[in-house]
Amino acid sequence: MLLSVKDLRMHYKTKMGYVKAVDGINFDLDSGESLGIVGESGCGKTSISMTILRLLPDNAEFRGGKVLFDMGSGPVDFVSLDESEMRHYRWRGISMIFQAAMNSLNPVYKVGDQIIEAIQNHFPQTPIDKARQKVAELFELVGLDPSRMDQYPHQYSGGMKQRAVIAMALACDPKVIIADEPTTALDVIVQDRILKEVRKIQKKLNMAMIYISHDIAVIAEVSDKIAVMYAGKFAELADSVTIFKKPMHPYTYGLMHAFPSTVGEKTDLVTIPGEPPNLLNPPKGCRFAPRCPKADEMCQNQEPEYVEVEKGHFVACHHPVKVGEVVQFYAE
Amino acid sequence: MQNDTVLKIEGLRKLFPAHRRIFGRIRHFVHAVDDISVEIKRKESLALVGESGCGKTTTGKVLVGLEEPTDGRIIVEQEDVTPLLYDSESLARRYVERTYVERFSKMTDEELERLSGIDRIYAERFLKLSKNAPKFLAEFLDNRRERIWQLRRRVQMIFQDPYESLNPRMTIFDIVSEPLNIHDIGNLKEREDRVAEMLASVGLTPPETFMFRFPHELSGGQRQRVAIARALILNPSFVVADEPTSMLDVSIRTGVMKLMMKLAEDHHMSYLYITHDLAVARYMSNNIAVMYLGKIVETGSTEEVLQNPLHPYTKALLAAVPIPDPEQKRKEPNIKGSVPKPIDPPKRCRFFDRCPYAVEYCEKNDHPQLVEISSNHKVACYVVSGEAK
User: With an 8 Å Cβ cutoff, are B278 and A262 in contact?
Assistant: First the structure.
């Protein structure tokens, strides 16, 4: 297994108490596989990637778990590494495409030079012409004209900046790439091109990918398997077709039916009542129970276990939705 | 039939100066909105869709008076409100002279009587005043302030970001009752009742628990409900909604969408629903207008346009929307390049540079007019209309 996350927990310390942003996350990722993490804002999906890469702010407190990463020489637990050892794995092992491409590039350096800097940082022996050649190849790969590597970020459009950031993330041939909402600020036509590019490169280089988004439709396009996250935990994880066709967690079910589509029949959209819980004081039992139409007393008091119900299909629910069952959500 | 029209925009243009120099004339303009015409009937909603920078928000801002129109006429419920959208009286006067007085003065009585639509209403008035131009002008310009206020009661706006559109230092009651204060409606007790009723109808129940809280104590969805309550408290006939749900999470978004539809029905109200999301537009509108670089390229009933898009841009836009179903494969969007800047665009079809079907005819002629292809479905494309071979 390339990357294996076991019972990962990370809480943010605030004046009011601990925000339980990542609270017991488990998943495995093989090379060439793409995992989509979908969830609403504040559910902790970005915090997962920050915890894996150990790029946490000062008020974050690691609360246990394992991040086992295997580059071929046996698994290494990121948690036990010190900062300099960890640096060895960032970019070369796991690299990240950040949310706001416009802000990830330094405006006063040429785009090509910024990527060369990343390459030479991790492989100091690389001569400059080799590095430039590598950048030209990367530009080609992401669909940018290599002659643009000597231009500054302000000469790029939004979509081009995003492509440059992707090229930068690929600079050190990572085994895993984490893409955190890379297309959220882009228009649909540009988004479509970037999504296709990302998917194509991921397959071509046989990389593993973790794609984080709030948009189920985007996740459906790029993922082999999908994890639905709610309030710091995974509610459900399965291959993407199963998640869409046979959702078992009521939250997944609601989400699937709340999402409008331009194709197919115009169905009635589901409204999930209430709001996501405050992670300072999440509900005692199942975190979705206050909004769930199937919740009973057990759900209020006892946290459901995250179990494998079928091969590769994990659900944390006391009363999973059966195939063909219609769940009625009662909005206020 | 005519009286059913809540809003009619005719030939609206809005140019912004680009590269302003200290001395000398402004030579370059951003054509944000360039000659668009739409009509919204009572209780119907129109979705204005397009990518960022296509001019959809500018159109909305002109309608509520946040931007002055450069050209064009805006009619709200059988009244030409364009003079009220200009900041200065002299511009308003110039508009009335140009649009009505100069034109009407040249016409004979018979010609005036033969006019139709909104022109007819004003022509009749002109004849009644026995062609007295100053009196006619005065009818447009007198009580300007008062009439601008009246217009604001009828046309309201809901903004995109509920974290920015609510004053953090005002309580929910203050925010929602402010329009009542400004328009001096009711006494404190009546205002309280009205606000409570409004909060209940937007789903903030019980209202007493929300009235004296501050925006920071509410979630995004609740804030947007407050913004909706504020926009609707004066019972407007028409609301400009600028991406009201794009900042909200999926599980909350549908609730706000459904609420807006229900309120439209209850209050006999129409929306101009501005959005970049075609799937949301499908649920929020009867008709749709697709904008590209300041022009409407396709318009028609929403279902018809989404199921049977004709303009190459609409087709590309629809093909690019991800489908929430991993088993469905989309078509490849057939479009070249990226959106150019709308500064002094050439006269030819705006979509020419990106169009996969463009022929010589498209380059040689002006931007195409909207042509009705089937009932209530218009397209601005020479290739689709068959004019270009």
Answer: yes
Q: Say which of A214, A217, A273 has its CB closest to residue B323.
A: A217
Q: B233 and B179 in contact (C-beta within 8 Å)? A: yes
- CB-CB under 8 Å, A241 with B324: no
Q: What is the pLDDT of residue B220?
A: 87
A263 → closest Cβ in B254, B316, B323: B323
Give me the architecture of the A3-223 domain, per CATH.
3-Layer(aba) Sandwich (3.40)
- Span(s) in chain A for CATH 3.40.50.300: 3-223
Q: Which residues does chain B have within 8 Å of residue A269's beta carbon, measured at their own beta carbons?
A: 254, 257-258, 283
Domain range for B159 is 2-289
Give the closest-approach CA distance of A199 to chain B in angstroms: 14
Domain count, chain B: 1
Min Cα–Cα distance to chain B from A109, Å: 25
The secondary element (H helix, E strand) that includes residue B106 is helix B102-106
Q: Does residue B206 have a cis peptide bond before it, meaning omega lies within 30 degrees of 0?
A: yes
Question: pLDDT by residue (tens digit) across B51-83?
Answer: 988 999 999 999 999 999 999 999 999 899 999
Q: What percent of chain B has pLDDT over 70?
A: 99
Give the residue from A263, A278, A287, A329 with the most B CB atoms within 10 Å of its CB, the best one to mutate.
A263
**pLDDT score for B1:** 43
Q: Is residue B351 domain-resident?
A: no
Q: What is the ipTM of this complex?
A: 0.86
CATH number at residue B129: 3.40.50.300
Nearest CA-CA partner of A53 in A225, A198, A180, A195: A180
As a whole number of angstroms, the distance between CA B51 and CA B145 comes to 36
- Asked if B283 and A266 come within 8 Å (Cβ–Cβ), the reply is yes
Residues in chain B: 389
Instruction: Identify the pLDDT of residue A274.
Output: 86
The whole-model pTM stands at 0.90
Residue at B56 is within a domain: yes
